[in-house]
Write a structure and sequence with these properties.
This protein is α+β, with helices and mostly antiparallel strands. It has a domain of 47 residues. Helix content is 22%, strand content 9%. It contains 2 helices and 2 strands. It has a two-stranded antiparallel sheet with strand order 1-2. The chain is globular. The model has no long low-confidence stretch (mean pLDDT 82).
Length: 89
């Protein structure tokens, strides 16, 4: 079995155990429920972003559609508020 280039080191045994635990805990049902949700969870979503770790209390089961729509919440940086006055041209 070959690994995807996106899984540089492959999926670890520890991650597979955590993933299986979260999917079972959430009864394989998507907990995110965005527009286009398929309800059947096949992914695990990191609520705080993947870089912050794999603590099961910060993970939820997610369908692929919802997981892809949200992406990595740690990478979502809102635009700063506009503080300068601009002339409307």
């Amino acid at each position: 079995m070959s690994n995807s280039k996106h899984w540089a080191g492959g999926s670890t045994r520890a991650w597979r155990k955590v993933r299986a635990y979260v999917l079972r805990r959430d009864s394989f049902r998507c907990q995110v429920r965005m527009d286009g949700c398929t309800v059947r969870a096949t992914c695990v979503h990191h609520l705080d972003g993947k870089a912050l770790g794999d603590d099961p209390s910060r993970l939820v089961a997610s369908c692929n559609s919802c997981n892809q729509a949200i992406g990595d919440p740690a990478r979502t940086v809102p635009d700063p508020p506009l503080t300068e006055t601009r002339t409307p041209w």
